[in-house]
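Data availability excerpt. The first of two example chains:
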Amino acid sequence: MTVVDVHAHVFPRVSRAESRILHPEDGPWLREDGGGAGMMMSGTTAYRPVGQELWDPEPRLRQMDRQGVDIQVVSSTPLMFGYAADPGRATQWCELVNDRVLQLCAHAPDRLVPLCQVPLQDTELACAEVSRAMAAGHAGVHLGNHVGDRGLDDGPIREFLAHCAHENAPVFVHPWDMLAPERMPRYMLPWLVGMAAETQLTLLGLCLSGAFEQLPESLRLCFAHGGGSFPYLLGRADNAWHRRDLVRADSPRPPSAYLDRFHLDSAVFDPRAFRLLVEVMGPERIMLGTDYPFPLGEERHGALVRDSHLTPAERALVLGGNALRFFGLDAPRHDSTEAPR
């Protein structure tokens, strides 16, 4: 059985000088502090302390072996998106980041699978960059769930998603820039509440706007963090669609009719939540996601799936089979030699 983690982040080595490509003052960059420690920086502001697994493939691969993970599909940290920047600057930035991620993954190309990022604020430039990146060796694209006040159901962003379908580029969607931060200043509540709400907002926007009716069925979408609040409040959304014409004004079918149009990762951290996730989506629509290597990620990679109620065949799908098909990957020649701890 091949184990594939579809939700794993990297922050490739980017210097302070290179960060000015995106923004002269506040561009993101990596400060290496020695001894395997580092800091994600935003200009002169320290954003988050990190370990070298975030940028160095060697310790990452050793950790994958210890955790029993064969393949990671890696994406940049959302701090690097650059959606608020001038589109020209953002394009140069995305080219730099994408090339660096390719270099990182080239260390073990059968085990580290790169996703690109794009200047989503400009549809034409975003389409050009995803085409360039896919030709260069990326396996898909990593998107934030909105650009300012525009969600993925926005017309130009919808055009970009259609282009991804044309390019055979799978799309991994991550919540970011969470809503109402002024109401959640403490306890990491933007991550605990905002991320779940952002993902639910995005999925309902795609369902209720009629976007799924217009987007190609060949489009492959996966949403991080178990779809946020969406699976657990789907009944509420369906009830509203059936009872209120305001809700169903632009969608001919209720939200539950579109569950076959996307995948979710497994990062819900609780057996009861995972059981409901499987009941809503089915095991063929869920892929292992750990949020590695951040501290809010799954400590024992895949333990929630391995210890679940699923049959062995269903566990194999969630742990790797679905991801191999979704990203068009071959099982690696390497087999993890250590049992997961």
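And the second chain:
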Amino acid sequence: MPEYSLELIERGIRESLLNELSRSGLLFRLFARIKDTQSIEEKLIRKDYSEEKKMQDLIGLRITTYFNDDLKIVVDICKKLFGHIELIYDEPEVDIFRPLRKNMICKFPPELSQIFEEFKSTRGDYDFVDNTFEIQFRTTLSEGWHEVDHLMRYKCKDDWATLNDESRMLNGIYATLETNDQALKALFDDIAYQHYNSKRWQAMLRNQFRLRFTMDSLDNKLILYFNENPEVIKKIFKLNRKEVIEAYLSSNLKLPITFNGLTYFVNYYFINDKYIEQNTPELFLEELNLSINK
């Protein structure tokens, strides 16, 4: 079977993941690659694989999120979409600093696994390559550091055997990026609060939920209603962002992320305000009733 088989497998996995990530509205980038023949040969020698321990990252995907609190949401999306064989998700330790590993090994879906087995049967150099793929999880701020570390330190560890101070310095650069990830989220939380105090409701929603909203503006009826009923918008402002996104993902909704749509959704699922419900478009309300089991 031609090399196109691997491209077919990679595309099937990537498109499935891209569709679900896009549905979530999260801000992310998705990268995918297939190991070339030279990389496979090099790793088979370096790692000493066998029938019992096979290479698991012939196909690799990397998801970078704009904000660090989205990483666990993305991990959950991948777990539900593919299941997983192994998940490594390091949590930071108070007294010890080290770069945190966040990656998952998953099996090919059955139909793609069959394509791979047929491909392997025509080759003699893939015996120790498994029908699995790896997903790595990064933030956009840490992505560049991981690329440098992987190529310049991980793949040539002997070069660093005596460079303890330099290795610590490289880790220290990662520490600053981790701190900046936290500061970035805190900054946008503060911006959302400022917009809330200033009654700029659309800007508040954009910075509170940090999703890929369309260009459609918040309905003037909703703006006026929030101006006159601050207790309602206060309830929305106090919602847990992660819970809102997870509630949406657990539904079957596949709608553009708009300010109006988000308002209708959180009202239906969390707030239950009668005025907003009455002003929710009938077709949207039907979709909500069909797609959500409260």
